Amino acid sequence: MADKEIVKGGHYLIAETSCADVFTPEDFTDEHRQMGDTVAQFIENEIIPNTDEIEKQQFEHTYSGMEKCGELGMLMMEATEEDGGLDLDLVSAMLTNEKVSHGGSFAATYTAHTGIGTLPLIYYGNADQKERYLGKLMSGEWIGAYCLTEPGSGSDALGAQASAVLSEDGKHYILNGTKQFITNGGIAGLYTIFAKIDREHFTGFLVERDTEGLIVGPEEKKLGIKGSSTTQIILDNCKVPVENLLGEKGKGHKIAFNVLNIGRLKLGASTLGGSKKALKEGIKYANERKQFNTPISRFGAIGEKIADLTAHIFASESVVYRAAGIIDDRLARVEKTSANYYDEYLVGIEEYAVECAIPKVFCSDVLARVVDEVVQIHGGYGFVQDYPAERFYRDERINRIFEGTNEINRLIIPGMILRKAMKGEMPIQAEAMKAFEALMTPGFDEIDDTVLFGREKALVKNLKTLFLILAGAGVRKFMDKLANEQEILIASANLAIQIYALESTVLRAEKIHAGLSDRMQEVLTSAVKIFAFDAAEAAATAAKKGAFFVEEGDNLAMILSGVRRFTKYDASGLLGAKKTLAAAACEGEKYIFN
């Protein structure tokens, strides 16, 4: 792995990637698969039977489940061996999150604990802090919570008003303020709380539950994930020992943002797992439910839904593990014996802020589509609590808000790319000029159908050209003010997301195609065609919107002609592809690609 060329963050937009260089689920090691099976069995045997009780916030089941997670090593995967952890790769954490997601509200507790609840201590804690707290968090004796959001500051995290003042004797920081929507708030033993020292220096603190002045608010009455704990945390002259300051004074933003990057990537895995679980229930119901003496899965209207959802989940899976693999390749270069190990580790994570934001947005959007269609497949039964489709639908909604809203994450994508361009780390301007030359050159765009997935590869290439055209046009018109044009940035992000998803799908399909049976090759090709058609349509919509936002007159007409040209995709045989994929999915009665 150390000899492998490292892919730079965001460079997928300007570089060509070989299928041999992407990590896919088919690359899981035996250890990965054994771990995934163990986690899946634990959720099936220990958590799902207690779903009703957990949904009623009978937290004894949550505490018991977390302690069992500790016994299985599920709470210590990302800590180094020196810190008492297992020091596993990011792919392992992603796979675990995917499997845990089947546990409903328990998954929210678990993922918050292992992500934002524990990672700040792992990444930024000193030896004394880890000695006191990390063992309790990794065993499940204590549950962790992360307190950043406030009633008046959500996306604007640095606008937090919670304050910290050093006591007269210099032994404590006195914290005051209110934290809002804190996952695990009512059950945590340790809180990572952000406050401004002297109302200026944004800083993290480790705060124990029984700390004087820390007040846990009542449980919020939520739309979904009802079995998880969500409360306010009120700081009323909360006395925090000075030795519990986390990291450096005034550097809390580093803790907040780096932890959120990994949280976003992990949320992609969690929503992927949710999509698979919901699809399985949808197909099972469609096979059992009969109308006109025929299972409804055999009707084209239902079959098309199942085919579309399967194709989009395949894309989600491709996105999640490609991103995790890229980051693992980079982190493998960090010398574990280095005194600055975590500093270098976090620099590596920050490099891939774009690749962390994309799975969060794309996979949560796919889950939203999946659960909506699964309710539709169930008809009236999907609207009642006797069937899991109803809970899937409610539980899904938070994922587009968690870990930064999808709108904020969309803004991160072009924002990071522009920042890299300004630093000279990405030659966006030069590549945009080439793209404009391609736009001005009459296109014959011949496609070699003898090349495996040749049409889809051509589409990926063309969409990258289109992104660069729009990026160049936006920079020329707005210059440094482009960062303030959120409508344009979101349109460009939607295009960038579709490019990453489509390319990930095609590269994975190309990589695994030869190892499949003839039938599964046909099924795989069908999934790629279905997703490519949808991605081309979504990219065209985003690009047209962006063109109308940026240009007018002759320039607009020229770019719109480019949109038509570069989003063109011959999806001949699309209906047959949908029938093929639907039949295979219904026969397997689950997501069929793993």
From TrEMBL:
InterPro entries: Acyl-CoA-dh-like_C (IPR049426), Acyl-CoA_DH_CS (IPR006089), Acyl-CoA_Oxase/DH_mid-dom (IPR006091), Acyl-CoA_Oxase/DH_mid-dom_sf (IPR046373), AcylCo_DH-like_C (IPR036250), AcylCo_DH/oxidase_C (IPR009075), AcylCoA_DH/ox_N (IPR013786), AcylCoA_DH/ox_N_sf (IPR037069). It catalyses: a 2,3-saturated acyl-CoA + A = a 2,3-dehydroacyl-CoA + AH2. Transmembrane segments: none annotated. Residues 250-413 form the Acyl-CoA dehydrogenase/oxidase C-terminal domain. Gene3D superfamilies: Acyl-CoA dehydrogenase/oxidase, N-terminal domain (1.10.540.10), Butyryl-CoA Dehydrogenase, subunit A, domain 2 (2.40.110.10), Butyryl-CoA Dehydrogenase, subunit A, domain 3 (1.20.140.10). Residues 462-565 form the Acyl-CoA dehydrogenase-like C-terminal domain. It holds the Pfam family Acyl-CoA_dh_1. Residues 145-238 form the Acyl-CoA oxidase/dehydrogenase middle domain. One of its GO terms (molecular function) is acyl-CoA dehydrogenase activity. Belongs to the acyl-CoA dehydrogenase family. This is Acyl-CoA dehydrogenase. It comes from Desulforhopalus singaporensis.
